[in-house]
């Protein structure tokens, strides 16, 4: 066996010179193009494509603590917020400023996702995560929430009666609804102030500039009405669904989970606190009777837990649902009032358009009547042209030799033209085509 093929096998990059003998068959050599194509990768690799395209950079969030009310700036990416609040990615897309989504209020297991105009936040039982932006309403929301929490804490410390006993998530949700409703109401008020003088000016003077201004005004009105309608539908949907309202009570669910975990770690306390439990926990138990007693104990514990949970959830659920429903109803009335303002403005614009159309139709009718009169007068004048054409022919009649023939032709033609013109006017009046 030759050593040269072995060397070529060990080091393929080393060039070898092989001379083909006459006895060995000649092998076809691959061309340079085929060699190049065989070495070219199918998909050219780009170092930048190895990065994850779905990951986005961290965003700035304003964090408000539920206990102290202190605010801080939090830099976190989308994945961290998903793990922190136990939310799916589709819920966080509602808060992304790069996307334009309508207003929404979503109740989840551990958080409430709120997207109301400029307020885009995540409310949990322990904190509030507000998407930071340069909008003044975001700063106003943070300052007002801290002020209300400080007032509630001060009233609780002094023993005075607090204005409301709402949990943290309801206070944050109430303030978000208040800010959104006030913002939409201010937008509607500004639109009203601008619309009514412009519409009155349009009715008195129809011009291209005024029509263009009204067209832009109507576009803004339609967009604002759509936003107000969406907020109203979200509040109405929550009010109609008791399950969604019960899902939004995060503090109660948190306390319930803590109690459940505590009773799971200390079953003896749960059994002793169960109603009808007459067996002492500290009583000695014989080894022979321990297995059945342990099963009875677990069964009694499960029954007592289910009874306590059902009683507590039914009582608290009805109370808290009514409390939240009253809160939502107040802002439903407020946003419905804003929608009524916009609806009235829309009707006023429609009435103005109808009035303008009536005016334009009247002007158009007047132009048609004037055109009809001109057409009739043109027909009468055309009679003189016919008579002049007849007498302008190259022939002689005895009428040409009379001295007053020209005056009689003019008189008879004029009287005939006036008679035809009067006949046309009488016909148009009888047909009610022209008010005379």
Automatic annotation (TrEMBL):
SUPFAM superfamilies: Magnesium transport protein CorA, transmembrane region. Residues 12-41, 282-292 have a biased composition (Low complexity). Signal peptide: none annotated. It is a multi-pass membrane protein. Residues 214-241 form a coiled coil. It comes from the Eukaryota. It is found in: Membrane. Keywords: Coiled coil, Ion transport, Magnesium, Membrane, Transmembrane, Transmembrane helix, Transport. Belongs to the CorA metal ion transporter (MIT) (TC 1.A.35.5) family. PANTHER family: MAGNESIUM TRANSPORTER MRS2-1, RNA SPLICING PROTEIN MRS2, MITOCHONDRIAL. It holds the Pfam family CorA. This is Magnesium transporter. The chain crosses the membrane at residues 372-393, 405-428. GO terms for molecular function: magnesium ion transmembrane transporter activity. Residues 1-57, 282-314 are annotated as: Disordered. Magnesium transporter that may mediate the influx of magnesium. InterPro entries: CorA_TM1_TM2, MgTranspt_CorA/ZnTranspt_ZntB, MRS2-like. GO terms for cellular component: membrane.
């Amino acid at each position: 066996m030759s050593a040269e093929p072995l060397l070529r096998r060990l080091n393929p990059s080393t060039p070898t010179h092989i001379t083909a003998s006459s006895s060995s068959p000649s092998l076809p050599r691959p061309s340079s193009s085929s060699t190049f194509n065989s070495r070219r990768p199918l998909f050219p690799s780009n170092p930048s494509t190895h990065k994850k395209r779905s990951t986005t950079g961290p965003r700035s969030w304003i964090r408000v603590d539920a206990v102290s009310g202190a605010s801080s700036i939090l830099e976190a990416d989308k994945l961290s917020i998903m793990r922190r609040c136990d939310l799916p990615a589709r819920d966080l897309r509602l808060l992304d400023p790069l996307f334009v989504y309508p207003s929404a209020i979503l109740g989840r297991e551990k958080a409430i996702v709120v997207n109301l105009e400029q307020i885009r936040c995540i409310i949990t039982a322990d904190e509030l995560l507000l998407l930071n932006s340069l909008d003044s309403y975001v700063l106003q929301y943070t300052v007002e929430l801290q002020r209300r929490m400080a007032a509630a804490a001060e009233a609780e410390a002094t023993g005075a009666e607090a204005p409301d006993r709402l949990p943290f998530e309801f206070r944050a949700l109430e303030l978000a609804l208040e800010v959104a409703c006030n913002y939409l109401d201010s937008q509607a008020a500004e639109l009203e102030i601008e619309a009514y003088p412009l519409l009155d000016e349009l009715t008195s003077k129809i011009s291209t500039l005024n029509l263009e201004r009204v067209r832009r005004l109507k576009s803004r009105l339609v967009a604002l009405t759509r936003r107000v309608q969406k907020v109203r539908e979200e509040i109405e949907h929550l009010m109609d669904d008791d399950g969604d309202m019960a899902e939004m009570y995060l503090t109660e669910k948190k306390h319930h989970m803590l109690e459940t975990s505590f009773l799971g770690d200390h079953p003896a306390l749960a059994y002793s606190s169960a109603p009808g439990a007459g067996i002492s926990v500290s009583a000695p138990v014989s080894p022979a009777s321990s297995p059945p007693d342990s099963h009875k104990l677990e069964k009694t514990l499960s029954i007592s837990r289910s009874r306590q949970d059902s009683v507590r959830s039914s009582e608290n659920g009805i109370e808290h649902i009514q409390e939240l429903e009253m809160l939502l109803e107040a802002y439903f009335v407020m946003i419905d009032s804003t929608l009524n303002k916009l609806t009235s403005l829309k009707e006023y614009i429609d009435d103005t358009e109808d009035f303008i159309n009536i005016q334009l139709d009247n002007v158009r009718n007047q132009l048609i009547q004037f055109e009809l009169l001109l057409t009739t007068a043109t027909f009468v004048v055309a009679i003189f042209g016919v008579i002049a054409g007849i007498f302008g022919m190259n022939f002689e009649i005895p009428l040409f030799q009379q001295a007053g023939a020209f005056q009689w032709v003019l008189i008879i033609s004029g009287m005939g033209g006036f008679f035809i013109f009067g006949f046309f006017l009488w016909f148009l009046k009888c047909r009610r085509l022209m008010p005379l």
